């Protein structure tokens, strides 16, 4: 769909909502941040087409980024009109957590009494037992009660947390708490934020698996820079395996080795040119080969004299001419 924007008047300076920096910055993707900043700077003069052209993104990518900011409560959408949402009246539970560096300890009797007063949290923990296939011990209840009380996760988000931990095979109470602490640092509290995070994480894992297979690098640990490269290729450029594989082959043919940076230059160039298929990449006309100037004539192996005439002259000088020539 075609979107219209009415955000703020463009000027030499523009404001960014506080919630973006304090809550959403860690979990936002590079594309989402690019779209947000460009739209805030362009203000009421922003159009979907101009955003696509300025950022080198498709209309679908811009629309998904805008939808993400609508879900986070930064933008609001009404009848295809996008505007800044008013500031929230209060902070989310995760943002207003107490400042202790360590969560408080709970006694099981206290947890039982608290859960009796909080049926939604109690139901989430009981459902978690079914999801993970075991009954929580009293010690585990003391840890997992903190998911709602200390880490500020609503019951719906706690169920999503259980689901992700089960998918990753990390189902101990300690592992679940570690993931909850990570979500707290990232400002993830709402179910929508958690679902986006899980989807991005699943997509990133799939992309990394694909790149490992194409590059033949096995299960070695990827560096942060390598993961960032993969994220740019698959999330920002939206390239599939065939394009990454073609760039890999060009890299190896040109350098004789794997280079993430070299492949990134190839894919960045294709993205800037709007090349989206292997056929279009194969049809790309390479730049003319550079020449060092006009090639000099190779005279190193050619004598500067007539060897036959020299031999004749040398014979006559040594032995003289015949009597019939005198």
Describe what you observe in this structure.
This is DnaB/C C-terminal domain-containing protein. This protein is mainly alpha-helical and 326 residues long. It folds into three domains: 4-84, Arc Repressor Mutant, subunit A; 108-189; 211-282. The protein contains 16 helices and three strands. The chain has a three-stranded mixed sheet with strand order 1-3-2.
What order do the helices and strands follow? EHHHHEEHHHHHHHHHHHH
* Secondary structure: helix percent: 55-70%
On the 0-100 scale, what is the average pLDDT?
A: 82
How many separate helices? 16
Number of strands: 3
Largest sheet entry: 3 strands, mixed
Kindly name the structural category. mainly alpha
Rounded Rg = 34 Å
Distance between the termini: 108 Å
Low-confidence stretches: 89-100, 294-300
Kindly give the count of domains.
Answer: 3
Portion in beta strands: under 5%
Walk across the major sheet and give the strand order.
1-3-2
Shape: flat
Pfam families: DnaB_2 (PF07261)
InterPro entries: DnaB/C_C, DnaD, DnaD-like_sf
Domain DnaB/C C-terminal: 131-198, 220-283
Protein name: DnaB/C C-terminal domain-containing protein
Characteristic key phrases:
single chain; 326 residues; mainly alpha; Arc Repressor Mutant, subunit A; 3 domains; three-stranded mixed β-sheet; 3 strands; 57% helix; flat; DnaD; DnaB/C C-terminal domain-containing protein; DnaD-like_sf; DnaB/C_C
Which helices and strands, and how do they pair?
Layout: E1 4-6, H1 18-24, H2 30-42, H3 48-55, H4 59-71, E2 75-78, E3 81-84, H5 108-117, H6 119-132, H7 138-144, H8 146-149, H9 155-168, H10 173-185, H11 191-215, H12 224-236, H13 241-255, H14 260-272, H15 278-282, H16 307-319
Parallel strand pairs: 1-3
Antiparallel strand pairs: 2-3
Helix pairs in contact: 2-4, 6-9, 9-11, 11-12, 11-13, 13-14
